[in-house]
Design a protein that fits this description.
The chain is an alpha/beta fold and 275 residues long. It is built from eleven helices and 13 strands. It has helices spanning 13-22, 34-37, 52-62, 73-77, 89-97, 115-118, 134-148, 182-186, 207-217, 235-242, 260-266; strands at 2-6, 28-32, 67-71, 82-86, 104-107, 128-130, 159-164, 167-173, 175-176, 204-205, 226-231, 248-253, 270-274. The strands form three sheets. The protein has a six-stranded mixed sheet with strand order 6-13-12-11-7-8, with helices on both faces. A five-stranded parallel sheet has the order 3-2-1-4-5, sandwiched between helices. The chain has a two-stranded antiparallel ribbon with strand order 9-10. Helix 10 (235-242) packs parallel to helix 11. The termini are far apart. The relative contact order is 0.12.
Length: 275
């Protein structure tokens, strides 16, 4: 017999679809109980999570599985059959703790953010690739690349240039604040993190954020503006861009992290890669 086992903090369409698929091979669902989830440090910050018993009651009412119950590590360790679990870090860790690694079918489904998904680079599906976007566009990217070399951030140098009405209006690079000497005076906080992880925990202001801040300071409207960046925007910068009125983003390299790309597209920002 095969048992379906999963962490289920809330009920949404993704979980229902997963459970319906799993029920084709399994007649029993075990929901990881609150005590079991307590081994994960993030769980205390999971504000959405219902008590496991309440989740079990809700799922019983959906009549997907003949048997639905909550269970902990000891319950799972005592079962020597096969499991179906969603493919996420919680399931894999629990499978390891109960010694069931070789007996689990990890179901590929996105149910919620996990640390591996949060830090995973995603390919940008650009609206197109261009050699350049005319003389002004070529000039803007050249300016962005030129100003990037002025960055004092030795981890990554990024430049950006803003075009409004066919004029390069603003440009900036990522730079340490309040002083370019911050990481050399007190040390660089980035040394504690791998590439792409906790990118907001750093001393530089990013090039895109610097441009948007300067536009606000000088009263420059960004509706319909074009932004040229040497590297695809990070999630915080993508949010600023998306809601600033900028119409188009041109980038040369990089990838999307977390929701950067989807946020831009949700606000109908066009995204082009420059070859």
């Amino acid at each position: 017999m095969t048992i379906t086992a999963s962490y289920i903090p809330v009920i949404h369409r993704g979980y229902v679809d997963f459970l319906k698929e799993a029920s084709k091979k399994s007649s029993e669902l075990i929901i990881f109980d609150d005590e079991t989830m307590g081994i994960f440090d993030f769980y205390r910050k999971e504000i959405r999570a219902l008590p496991a018993k309440d989740v079990a009651d809700i799922i019983r009412s959906l009549d997907i599985f003949p048997s639905v119950r909550t269970g902990g590590l000891e319950d799972l360790k005592g079962y020597d059959g096969e499991f179906i679990m969603p493919d996420d870090e919680i399931s894999r860790r629990i499978a390891n703790l109960i010694g069931a690694d070789g007996r689990v079918e990890f179901f590929p489904v996105f149910l919620r953010w996990n640390s591996d998904k949060v830090t995973k680079p995603e390919e940008v599906i650009a609206d197109g690739e261009v050699l350049s976007s005319g003389f002004i566009g070529k000039l803007a990217m050249m300016k962005a690349e030129e100003v990037s070399k002025q960055s004092s951030d030795w981890w990554r140098r990024v430049g950006a240039a803003l075009i409004i009405n066919d004029e390069v209006k603003l440009f900036a690079c990522n730079s340490h604040v309040p002083s370019e000497y911050m990481p050399y005076t007190f040390g660089d906080p980035r040394m504690f993190f791998k590439k792409g992880i906790n990118i907001e925990l750093s001393t530089p202001i990013h090039a895109e954020a610097a441009i948007i801040a300067r536009a606000a300071k000088y009263g420059i409207k960004l509706d319909g503006a074009d932004l040229y960046v040497t590297t695809f925007p990070c999630p915080p910068c993508a949010k600023l861009i998306a809601y600033s009125g900028i119409r188009t983003v041109y980038f040369k390299e990089g990838y999307s992290m977390l929701d950067a790309y989807s946020i831009l597209k949700s606000q109908r920002v066009m995204v082009y890669r420059i070859k």
